[in-house]
């Protein structure tokens, strides 16, 4: 759960949903070129002095249109960033350390939010939720041929800090980065939203090159997430668009590759919490995010 002020945007989710249908029907209808969207095309063939550019048929795996269609993300890299870390609460001093996010200095990380405990039912933490959805998302993306990098897998005591999370995506030269979260708003505030970067040029932050492709990535994920999960865009920000533009998140400010945060629902609302604690619904959430990424990268 990113934890600062949110700024609404005006583009409508219905437009993105219409574009999703158009894309499925017409293979790229309305999509921008790879250059405009900041996505990478197939890697150029490496050339070694003294060696022919012509592939050796005996060393080249056989490909078929069906195989290519089943693995549309072959050659692409996606970084999945599970929000927070289950160990953060045991390391308050470390996660309270300030790091540079370009526009300011901000805490390394937070513990995230959780559902409300009731009776004998323990609270379900955001860190546990994001890791579960991230594992499901990784599986869905790998099945489509992508190379998937996790920023962490609860395999470190705490963190990584928000600036390091950005560096992991940058170092991977990722085609897309998705940070998985759940919100902690007031009861009655329901629905998902996707946070996209504002244009920031300050200090070590320069989001200019990634604003447009990140926005496109966010729109496709919002459309696919709504369709696959059956849930609605947040009713408490974004004017019903499912999108929220922010300039105060280090994970976005310091990214040099297209990146968004997906807030899958509000853990503090009982109705949303019932969805977030359902394994079947979390599978739908992961599938919706994956579908949005595939559409974006094929655009």
- Largest sheet, if any? 7 strands, mixed
Oligomer: single chain
Instruction: Please tell me the overall pLDDT.
Output: 85
Helix content estimate: 25-40%
The total strand number stands at 11
- Sheet/helix structural class: alpha/beta
Distance between termini? 29 Å
- What is the N-to-C succession of helices and strands? EHHHEHEEHEHEEEEHEHEHH
Strand order of the largest sheet: 1-10-7-11-6-2-5
Calculate Rg over CA atoms.
19 Å
Strand content: 15-25%
Q: What's the total helix number?
A: 10
Question: Care to describe what's here?
Answer:
This protein is α/β, with parallel strands linked by helices and 299 residues long. It is 37% helix and 16% strand. The protein has ten helices and eleven strands. The strands form three sheets. The protein has a seven-stranded mixed sheet with strand order 1-10-7-11-6-2-5, with helices on both faces. A two-stranded antiparallel ribbon has the order 3-4. It has a two-stranded antiparallel ribbon with strand order 8-9. Helix 5 (126-143) crosses helix 10 (279-298). The chain is globular, with a radius of gyration of 19 Å. The two termini are 29 Å apart.
């Amino acid at each position: 759960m990113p934890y600062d002020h949110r700024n609404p945007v005006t583009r409508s989710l219905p437009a993105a949903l219409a574009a999703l249908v158009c894309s499925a029907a017409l293979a790229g209808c309305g999509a921008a070129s790879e250059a405009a969207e900041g996505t990478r095309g197939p890697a150029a063939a490496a050339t070694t002095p003294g060696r022919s550019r012509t592939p050796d048929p005996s060393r080249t795996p056989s490909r078929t249109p069906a195989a290519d269609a089943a693995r549309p993300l072959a050659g692409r890299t996606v970084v999945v960033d599970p929000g927070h870390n289950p160990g953060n609460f045991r390391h308050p001093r470390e996660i309270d350390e300030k790091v540079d996010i370009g526009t300011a200095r901000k805490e390394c990380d937070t513990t995230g939010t959780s559902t409300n405990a009731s009776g004998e039912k323990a609270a379900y933490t955001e860190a546990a939720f994001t890791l579960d959805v991230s594992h499901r998302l990784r599986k869905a993306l790998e099945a489509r041929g992508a190379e998937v990098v996790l920023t962490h897998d609860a395999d470190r005591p705490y963190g990584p800090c928000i600036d390091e999370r950005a560096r992991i995506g940058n170092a991977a030269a990722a085609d897309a980065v998705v940070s998985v979260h759940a919100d902690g708003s007031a009861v009655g505030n329901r629905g998902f939203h996707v946070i996209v970067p504002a244009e920031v040029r300050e200090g070590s932050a320069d989001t200019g090159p990634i604003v447009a492709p990140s926005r496109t990535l966010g729109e496709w994920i919002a459309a696919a997430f709504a369709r696959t999960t059956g849930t609605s865009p947040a009713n408490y920000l974004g004017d019903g668009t499912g999108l929220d533009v922010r300039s105060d998140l280090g994970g976005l400010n310091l990214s040099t590759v297209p990146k968004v945060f997906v807030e899958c629902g509000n853990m503090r609302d009982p109705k949303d919490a019932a969805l977030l604690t359902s394994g079947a619904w979390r599978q739908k959430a992961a599938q919706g995010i994956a579908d949005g990424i595939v559409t974006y990268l094929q655009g």
